[in-house]
Design brief:
Length: 365
């Protein structure tokens, strides 16, 4: 992996598609109803602060992923334990994203197909991409990025032309005050999707222009936050806050309402294509992050074997984690942000950040 390199444009494309990933599928921040778009802006602000911590660690160890510099900061064995924990964390979150997209396909398109079969087919594509390497994924992301942005603009134009958007659905602003907005933004929207950028602590060392790492991450968070905000505004503007919040996949329902003279209609398959592109990037980044964490921490040379094992583990986990999609969503909203995301996205990086700077201060003294 030492010879792998990513250009600034490739890493930026991967980051934006990763951030959109599954967050654009579910109704992000809909617990705040018509103020959901405010929660995204607040969560994005917190995401900037988190990425500054990740970038500071990267500047301290520009040639190492988190799994390696954790050993230098905390010691060999505590660092290895952290590397193992991050590997399992990335597999689990990747499996949750895989479950999201498997359920999306089953619900919207292939209702008679078992979930396992859908997830297996997605996993085969993920495995193929993983075996090709991150450089191939980076080049693919550049193409996918252009496709997703172009189709997104087209959908917005079609919604406006169809006169589906009603600004009054976004009113009144802050009807119940700031309390529900802040409770939704922190930690839910902060950790999903913005805090998930912690996985890129494994990828930043492979950047050609290492000095660009912080800037690329901040720009990616900004653009993805703006896109998510616009998406939520249009979902609420088209369907209303109550219907958007109760919808399983509000983006599909929004796009499904487009109808121009009974000619341009039923655009759901194109929307699913956009969603699957983001899902593919997000899953493969998490599984790559897991593989990097284990391989660098324990000097594992059999990269392809490790990739196969991790992909199979994510596939099995995606089926076994919950009994149904409703339970899957409830765990994702009420358990994962507090007991997994906060420790791995905030707690451990903040600990490493503080210990690193204390050591640097002592060295200067």
């Amino acid at each position: 992996m030492g010879t792998v390199k990513l250009s600034s444009k490739q890493l930026f494309s991967i980051m934006v598609l990763f951030e959109l990933g599954s967050s654009i599928v579910v109704g992000l921040g809909m617990e705040a109803r018509q103020d959901a778009w405010i929660t995204i802006l607040l969560g994005m602000s917190g995401g900037f602060l988190l990425f500054l911590i990740y970038a500071s660690l990267f500047k301290g160890y520009p040639d190492l992923p988190l799994s390696e510099y954790a050993q230098k900061i905390l010691g060999k064995w505590p660092g290895k334990i952290i590397a193992i924990l991050y590997s399992f964390y990335f597999i689990y979150i990747g499996a949750r994203v895989l479950r999201d997209f498997g359920e999306l396909i089953v619900t919207s398109t292939l209702s008679q197909t078992p979930l396992f079969v859908i997830n297996l087919l997605i996993s085969v594509i993920i495995l193929y991409g993983g075996l090709l390497g991150i450089e191939v994924i980076g080049r693919s992301a550049e193409i996918f990025f252009a496709i997703v942005m172009s189709l997104g603009v087209v959908f917005i134009g079609l919604i406006l032309v169809s006169n589906l958007f009603h600004i009054e659905n976004l009113l009144p602003v802050l009807e119940d005050g700031w309390s529900p907005v802040l409770k939704t933004a922190f930690p839910l929207v902060l950790t999903f999707p913005f805090g998930e950028m912690v996985v890129f602590t494994m990828f930043l060392p492979f950047l050609y222009e290492k000095s660009e790492g912080q800037k690329i991450g901040m720009y990616a968070i900004l653009l993805s936050g703006i896109i998510l905000t616009i998406t939520i505004i249009f979902q609420i503007g088209v369907m209303g806050a109550f219907q958007a919040a109760s919808s399983t996949f509000p983006l599909l329902d929004t796009v499904g309402k487009i109808n121009i003279q009974d000619i341009i209609q039923r655009l759901d398959p194109i929307a699913i294509l956009i969603l699957m592109i983001g899902g593919f990037i997000k899953i493969i980044v998490f599984l790559f992050g897991s593989a990097i964490s284990l391989s660098t921490a324990f000097s594992i040379k059999r990269w392809k074997t490790l990739t196969v094992i991790i992909t199979c583990a994510a596939l099995v986990t995606s089926i076994l984690i919950e009994r149904n999609y409703l339970e899957h969503i409830q765990v994702g909203l009420n358990v994962v942000p507090y007991y997994l995301h906060l420790p791995f996205q905030v707690g451990i990086p903040l600990l490493l950040f503080l210990v690193m700077h204390v050591k640097q201060w002592r060295a200067q003294k």
